[in-house]
Amino acid sequence: MARYHIETYGCTSNRGETQQIEQALREGGHHPVDGPEAADVAILNTCTVLEKTEQNMLRRAKELDAETPGDLVVTGCMALAQGDLFREEDVDAEILHWDEVPDHVLNGECPTVTDGTDPVLNGVVGILPIARGCMSDCSYCITKQATGRIDSPTVDENVEKARALVHAGAKEIRITGQDTGVYGWDVNQGESLLPELLDRVCDIDGEFRVRVGMANPKGVHGVRDELARVFAENDELYNFLHAPVQSGSDDVLADMRRQHAVAEYVEVVETFDEYLDYWTLSTDFICGFPTEEPADHERSLALMRETRPEKINVTRFSKRPGTDAADMKGLGGQVKKDRSKELTDLKMDLVGEAHEEMVGTEQSVLLTEDGTEESLVGYDEAYRQVVIADAEQRGLAVGDTVDVEITSHNTVYAFGEPV
């Protein structure tokens, strides 16, 4: 699992967010190290209350970028309010909202899922792990050693768990698993039961929304029409699909043992485009895999331009002990940094364009968490993040659903005014 180093600056809110990041990382089997020199990922949780603080954050980000052999993630207030400053200073970092950090640290691996011991977070978000394990054998992923092959409870069992979450007050149900797309493969002759499960969960009485967690393209591809139809027919479902492609090169995907081809990923995207007018495609790219040639990297850039995901996680390849890819001769650190920067620059362009298209539209937003000062943060029907300033003064609270007009954006999230 990954070794991480995290530094936090600023207010109590930032420190609380760091605690939640660390809790998720440790539950996933990752462990802290004392300094960035030994870290697979360094995390900087920033503050921007004063100009002097801003300069200190830029300085520290540059230092961490130079000191850590792995990825750098910048989160917190300055990252979200002034993320462009880090790019202007040529800091090679992922700029992320704090709750995106644990997924990024996975570095392309399947997520490790908690057992739901704290089933309703903040009194709003219910966590529903629908299965454990996956059907993949990716050459770079260590998670498989901990989770094994897919083990799927029945649809009835998962529906009852979802019903219990709704009765406990959950306004949002997050369906999770190492790979939700292959849910049921072990009991249904290799065909996903995810569409049936989602249909059944959406039939539960109550007002709630459902977000589907990571689903690899191979599992989704075989049921893509049925799954897209379920999304189109159920308003409870966020129109959001996280299908990590990892590379735009079939040669690299074969070396990664990813099981899907680029064309299958594209067919999934095209199918959802046919069924849904407004939806979010989320995907992941690993850059700098040991066998990735310059032409393979260009294919990843081309695929990103072709499918235009609205949410993109870019990570540099990092060796995991005990995996086949750990024995491969790696690319140089500078090569990985350069390719990561190219992918990240394109990512920011695409994500910014998607949020710019939202400006002037009206969206229904479920508020799920506190923001900075008196703002609240929520998600629209496509699971795009929307911030409402002065929300508490307006009488709004976490758990409310509110219609807003999107007035502006900050590249990675939008701002809304209640209508």
From TrEMBL:
Note on cofactor? Binds 1 or 2 [4Fe-4S] cluster. One cluster is coordinated with 3 cysteines and an exchangeable S-adenosyl-L-methionine.
Q: Which GO terms describe its molecular function?
A: 4 iron, 4 sulfur cluster binding; metal ion binding; tRNA (N(6)-L-threonylcarbamoyladenosine(37)-C(2))-methylthiotransferase activity
Q: Which reaction does it catalyse?
A: N(6)-L-threonylcarbamoyladenosine(37) in tRNA + (sulfur carrier)-SH + AH2 + 2 S-adenosyl-L-methionine = 2-methylsulfanyl-N(6)-L-threonylcarbamoyladenosine(37) in tRNA + (sulfur carrier)-H + 5'-deoxyadenosine + L-methionine + A + S-adenosyl-L-homocysteine + 2 H(+)
The family database entries (Pfam families) matched by this protein are listed as: Radical_SAM, TRAM, UPF0004
| Keyword Endoplasmic reticulum among record annotations | no
Gene3D superfamilies, alphabetically? Methylthiotransferase, N-terminal domain, tm_1862 like domain
* Protein keywords: 4Fe-4S, Iron, Iron-sulfur, Metal-binding, S-adenosyl-L-methionine, Transferase, tRNA processing
Q: Which residues form the Radical SAM core domain?
A: 120-362
UniProt domain MTTase N-terminal: residue ranges: 2-110
Q: Look up the domain of life of the source.
A: Archaea
InterPro entries, sorted: Elp3/MiaA/NifB-like_rSAM (IPR006638), Methylthiotransferase (IPR005839), Methylthiotransferase_CS (IPR020612), Methylthiotransferase_N (IPR013848), Methylthiotransferase_N_sf (IPR038135), MiaB-like_arc_euk (IPR006466), rSAM (IPR007197), rSAM_horseshoe (IPR023404)
EC numbers listed for it are: 2.8.4.5
Q: Identify which cofactors the protein needs according to its UniProt entry.
A: [4Fe-4S] cluster
Q: Where is the TRAM domain?
A: 356-419
- PROSITE patterns cross-referenced by the UniProt entry: MTTASE_N, MTTASE_RADICAL, RADICAL_SAM, TRAM
Task: Tell me, in a sentence or two, what this protein's role is.
Answer: Catalyzes the methylthiolation of N6-threonylcarbamoyladenosine (t(6)A), leading to the formation of 2-methylthio-N6-threonylcarbamoyladenosine (ms(2)t(6)A) at position 37 in tRNAs that read codons beginning with adenine.
| Protein family | Belongs to the methylthiotransferase family. CDKAL1 subfamily.
Q: What is this protein called?
A: tRNA-t(6)A37 methylthiotransferase
